[in-house]
Every structure is written in C-alpha cells, then in structure tokens.
Amino acid sequence: MSAALLEVQDLTITFRTDAGTVHPAKGVSFEVAQGEVVGLVGESGSGKSMTAKAVLGLVEPARAVRSAHIRYKGRDLNRLSAAELFQLRARDLAMIFQDPMGSLNPLFTIGHQLTRVYLQHGPREGSARERKRAARARAVELLKKVRIPDPESRLGQYPHQFSGGMRQRVMIAMALMCSPTLLVADEPTTALDVTVELQVVELLKSLQAELGMSVIFISHNLGVVARLCDRVMVMYAGRIVESGPVDRVLVNPAHPYTRALLASMPRGRKDEAPLRPIQGEPPSLARLAPGCPFRPRCDLAGAGCEVEQKLVTVEPRHQAACHRVRAA
Amino acid sequence: MSTVVVERQSVTQPAPKASRRWLRQLWRDPLALISLVVLAVVLAAAIAPTWIATHSHVRPSMERLVPPSTERLMGTDQFGRDVFSRAVVAAQVSIAVGVITVVLALAIGVPLGAVAGFYGPGPIDTTIMRIMDVMLAFPPIILAIAVIAALGTESIEIGPFEIPHIAKLMFVIGLLYAPQVARVVRSAVLVEKNEQYVMAERALGASRPRILFRDVLRNCISPISVQATVLVANAIIAEASLSFLGLGIQPPQPSWGGMLADAKTYVQSGEWWLTVFPGMLIFVTVCALNVLGDYLRDVLDPREATAGAP
Amino acid sequence: MSERLLELVGVSKTYEADASLWARLMGAGGAVRAVSEVDLTVTRGETLGLVGESGCGKSTLARLILKLEEVTGGDVIFDGRNVTGLGPQHLAWFRSRVQIVFQDPQSSLNRSYRVETILASALRLHRGLKRRSDLREAAADLLRLVGLDPAFLDRYPHELSGGQRQRVGIARALSVEPDLLVLDEPVSALDVSIQAQIVNLLHDLQRRLGLTYVFISHDLNVVRYLADRVAVMYFGRIVETGPVETIYRRPRHPYTRVLLSAVALPDPEHELPTETALTGEVPSPLAPPSGCAFHPRCPLAQERCRRERPELREVGGVAVACHLVES
Questions:
Q1: Where are the domains of chain C?
Q2: How is domain C4-97+178-250 classified at the CATH fold level?
Q3: Is B199's CB within 8 Å of C68's CB?
Q4: What is the ipTM of this complex?
Q5: Which pTM does this prediction carry?
Q6: Is B5 part of the contact surface with chain C (CB cutoff 8 Å)?
C-alpha cells in the first residue's frame, strides 16, 4: 500500500461539562493509506464519531481539539490558512451521516442540492451556463452510480419523495460530487433495515473499488465492518485500544475488550453458545479512573493495569493497548 | 442448561438534588436572578402593602405635585397622595388580577386542551379547538372592552351574590386567555401521548383518563408553566390597559393603569414622576415575568439535567 | 390450563389511510392493511421469534396481541379464551397475564416519576397493595428480580443508563406476574455489550418464572439465540415459520435467505454468505404489489408470483409461503 493519505498524531479533544472535564478522544493516533477502507468501531460514547469529525474540522468549538499533527497528503493541517483548509475540506474530504433526512434540505430538489456542491467547489472553467450543464451531467452520472433508477427525472424531486435507503444513496452521491480522496461515513447504515443496509454497504464497497478513494467507516456493527473494511480500529473511552487487519482482529482479537465484545454477540443457540456479556456499563468519560479505562470491566485486570498501556504490536500491522497482550 | 450470569447492578453515586441544579442554573443566568428578585419585591408589596407603603394611598394632603425626595420616594399626585404608596397598593391589584385570571384560564384551558389532544383527532378535538379558534380570532383587549362596556363597571348582582367589578374583570380576561392555554396544552399532549410509556400504562390496564391526567399532563407541566408565566404578564398589561381606559379598576382604588390615566394630563407639564414610576413598574414586572418564563423552560425539563459527556 | 397459550387465527388489521371527511368526499384515502390473515400459535413456556424489517407489521401484531388495538379481522385466543371482544370486567384478567416490553427504554418510562412510582402504579392496580411500605418492598423485589439494586427505586429514569432503564421496563412488565411477555425489540436500542446482559436476563427470567415469550426483533442472531420457533414477516404476512434451527440451517423462502445473509456475523469458521443484496425496498402499503408481495424484489420471481399469492404450506417441518419451494 502506498504512503499514508491521512496521518493523525496524538489527537485529543477536551470538553468542559457540568460533570467535569471529559476527553471524547485522548491521544488518538492513526493513519489511513491511499485507497484503504478503515473501520472505526466502538459503542456509543467511545469517541469514534467525535474523532472522525475532529479530523474534518467539524468539532465545535475548534479550541476543544488539540492535536500535535494532522497531516493530509503530507501537508500539516495546522499550518494551512483558513481559506486553504476550507478548500481542502470542500474538495478532498467528504462526510456522510447516519440520518439522511436530517442531512438533506427538505425545501430544495435533489438536483439543486447535488449541483450546488459542484458549482461551489467543482472545476471553475467555462461560462456559468456550461458549468451548470456540467454540474447537472455530473449529478446524473453519480445518481446512476449509486443505482438510482431514472436519474434525470429524479433530479427534480424533493427528499421526501425518496425512501430511507434512496436518501442515503443520494447522500453518498452528494458526497462524491467533487471526487473526494477521503470519505468519512458516520454510521451511514444504522438507521436502515438490514436488507437495505446490505445494499448500501455493497454499493459503498463497489464505489470505493471503482473510485479508489479512502474511507473511514464508523460503525458499531462488526458484521458490516467485516464486509467492507480492510483494517479496523476499536475505540473504547476515547482511546484506540486495538487496530489491525479486519480478518486478524475479528478472528484473533488481542485486546480483552475486543474479545469480550465478540463474545457478547450471539452466534448460535442459547444452549450451544451461551453469551458472555461484558459486566458493568460503558464508562462515563467524566469519571474515568486512572489507568486502563477498561480495567473495571476486564476479566484479566490485575497488577500493572493502574498504568495505561500504549498500543503495542501483537503481530505485523496488528496492535493492542494492553499489558496482558503477550501473556494472552 | 447453560449457566446465566446476572450480576447485580449497584448504584455508584448518590442522586443529585434537583434543587441544587435549579440554583446552579440560576447563578449562571444573571438576568433570571434579577427578574426573580424584582418579582419577589413586587410580590412582597402585593402581599403586605401596609408594611411597605410609607403613607396612606387614599388620603389627600396639601402637598400636591411634590417631586420625588427621600420623604416622598416617588413624589405626590395632583391630590397630594403619595405615589409610592399608591403604586405599592396597586401592585396588589395587578398581581391579583394577573394570577387569578391565569389560574382561571388554566382551569378552563388545561382540561379542554388535554382532552382535545388526547382523544383527537376526531369530533371531540375538532369541536373544542374550533370554538377556541373562534375565540382566538378576536383581539382579546378589544373583546374585553366590548364585554365590560356591555356589563358596566359597577358590581352586578346575580341572584343572592354580588359580583364586584374586579371579579368580572378577572373572569373576562381569564376566559379570553383560556384558548391560548388550551392550544399549548393540546400540542404538548399530542407529542406526549405518543411516548411509549402511555402504551405501557395501557397494557397494564390503566384507564385513559387516568393516563391523561396522572401521567401525560404531568409531563406537560413545563410548557404550561412557561405559558402561564407569560400570560400573567399579559394579564397585567390587559388590566392596566383596561384601567387606563377607565374600564378596569375604578378610582379611588389605585391601579398602575389607572395611575397612568390620571397622570396623562401632566405628561407635558413636567411632572414626570406621575407617569414614569407606574409605567416603569408595569414594564419591569412584565419583563421579569417573561425572563422567568424562559428560565422555567430551561430548567423544568428533567431530561435537561443530564448535561454530561457528549 | 391449555398448552396453547396464545393463538392467532386469521388476524388482520386495516387502517383507514385518511379518514377525514374531505378525503372521503374526494374519493381519496383508502385502507392500509398492516397485518393480513396471520395464524400463529405460541405454546406455554416457549419463545416465538417474530422477525422482519420495519413496516412489516410485527409491531402492529404486538399491539394486537396486547389488545392495545383491536383486530379488524380474525380472533386472538389466549389460554383457551377468545379475547377479541373481551368486556371491561375480563380485561383486567387479560392485562394481568399478558405484558409488553418496549424497544426504547427512554420513552417507555415516564420521565417525571421515580422508579418506585413507576413500579408502584402497576402493583397497585393488579396486586391490590395499598400501604406505601408494602408497595416499596414489592417494587424492591422486582428490581432484585431484574438484577438491579433496590437503591435505584429513588432514581429518575434519566439518571439510569440505557441497560438499567430496560431492566426497569422489564420489572414493570413483570409486576403483574404475567404468563406471556411480548418483547418488542427489547435490545435493539442498546449497545452491544449491554444487549448481551439483557438477553441473558430475559433467558434467566424465563427459566425461573416459566414465562412464555413473543420476541420481536430484526436482529436474527438474537432471535436465533433465544427463540424456539421463529416466524418471518414480510409486508403484513408470515412468509415462513417453523423451528428456529430448521429455518436457520435451511431457510426456504427467498426473503428469509436474504435476511439471514444480511446479518451474518464475522465468523472465523464460515465464509461470509454470498447471497446477493436485494434490489428495491419494502413496497408502499398504499400500493400493495399483486400476487406475492415479495415478487418485485425477489431474485427468483416468475410469472406465477406476480399473479397468485402463495399460501403458507408445510414443507419439511416448516411452513413457507412461496410458489417456488418444492414440497
């Protein structure tokens, strides 16, 4: 795989709340290679969504985000001017969200919303009329790509005339209008029915293969991640606790949390394969004990766990943040 | 048979006190704090005017049109009556009219709106709300003027009861505000009745009226209190307007609107204290009530309490 | 006592799409069939899994079983007694025997009341407890039953986590000591690690209290784990039903096959299923397809599927509604 497209080093997000200071992400470092599909999994409150938004500069207020470096194509985002950053985000980066209805403006046609993105940030050459025609052609092309039948007439319709799965396809088309090099997909299939979810995942997979973009796919659904992703990063309490190729992490999980998560998913009958739930509740970020954040729920916790462990390499390209990794 | 682990979940930290949250919120919102102080002062005046008033509010004196001083805090009027003492006593009337009319409006509007929202859509909802719409179509002040002009400003006798004019006033304003309450309650109930706990209660066999009045309405307290606070302010303005027009509180009983009406001939002759002080009192009280309404909206919803991690 | 605790015989539910006078005058509106001619039997002590996607009618069916809505056709028979037209005097009996747990533990608990008040309301209605101390003691017992510390009695719902709220929801349903519990997506809104806790709790309660479950879910893995028998719904009808293992080992209806492949977990021992993704989405109930409701999305659809609606028929121990399944 070629050099890293995106490099995040030591990303920390800090919020002050009534309950105290919380870090939705703490010391998060990762890379995304050109053309790679990375899954970011974790339970609610694990910081997966916040991490991805911080990379795109979408966390408000901006001062909550503190990170040593975010490099994109080797350029340090901290050093870019506001205008350059805006350009970069508009053209190279794109994001799709969980709720496609909330992300589309109900008052404008799909065609208007698709072409507007392109007119603002797409190529600048040609007269206004030519550019409009180009934008329309691009919109039709992309609607075709996301397999919406009869795209020309669909352009004139409003979001409510589309079903949930269709809207999510439109959102994907919109994200792809300016040919981004990195697509961040934040639980794009969670609100959809399983059969529709499968369609959208298959669609994303084929689009990614065709266009060669990198994807950060945020999900709590390990099944979907396994279908789509090359590599997976597991987050817990704002930290990446395990990272590695999907087939390795899901087959041979190294971190006790990943292992417990897999063991808590039903995969048979109750009398064949009893569930072993993770005890307790996901931690409140405001009341995190020092040391390994998973310690209170961990079966293997013991001496040494009062000190937090950084990611250590388990096998090539596979890391986990746990003292017990080698022993286990 | 497999062994099933059901571990006991225990309480980790003590339940936070709701009152502390109210106070903390209040401390963060200085405008609400000031409003609360203002209202406390006005309320104190309304409850015990004799403690606060420095002079008699009715007895004339020879000191006519005296400007404000340490002795006469707000000066005196054309009959030599103490403006401060009159304003303090008038606060009682204004607060009483404001509160009682709104209690009346709630008594009529809440059940109507609740029933319309809960049992709608259907003929019950349509009938109730169309009547409310008709009442809302009239500007309340104009309608109040018309009604009071028809009923007169004297006390009237119905059978063995003598109804004082102020009671008529309260009744008319209260009746006119009921549709506003009903509308707010109906829309709150419409949202609330789709919550799953309503279904759960029905599955447990609770009757519909019981669910409506015990469970659903309880969760509508927040919008109702906000609306009620704002309506108290509106009612105070309505009473002041009617009194200003001579249809409200009758002299010599002081009222803020009546004091303004009496003073209107002195606006251009330099006796500013006659108009400024009653006017200010109306303005400040009404503003404070509106700010309080906003504060209640923020603080009343228990779900807002979990302002924890994002 | 009947072995068949619950029987649905040809149960249907039709809604008027737009019953306003204007719509009727204009000839607009029309009936929407949410549930069509459903036959189901639930035996005492078993768990029946009811699976399907949103809009397939499974939640409507739950409300019909609970008599929260009235059927427009067919009969609901509970413990040998037809409860379709049950009068108010017998309704209390029914309410104390059938209960429901909802999907969203946030919305299913009244946010204004402490846990104690939420539980006491049902206890007062059905167990005739009056004294405050008795109510509190009974409520504490309910919390212990679902693995919560009685100290939670003094909490408000918003002070609990999602899993804890769902436990309170289960405790409330158990307060009347029911025989049948309808679980409407009870774990779908919870985090994965918490789902397992609740699933285990439900399993444990069933064993200890001899409960019968109707477990509604779109998560086929959870259904497989808990259920003895499963019924797959599509567009208001049951398209396949039978013992859970038979169906999971060999799904016969094309829709069941796609559903199963869509939810396959990452599994080291098995290849990911290769069933292709469906095209299209669930049809609009205002414009139901002719013949088999699944034919517009079915990869195997034939001319006959467009014309003729398949009936459920017995094939190898299960019942399937598909023309293409060989006997």
A1: 4-97+178-250
A2: Rossmann fold (3.40.50)
A3: yes
A4: 0.85
A5: 0.86
A6: yes
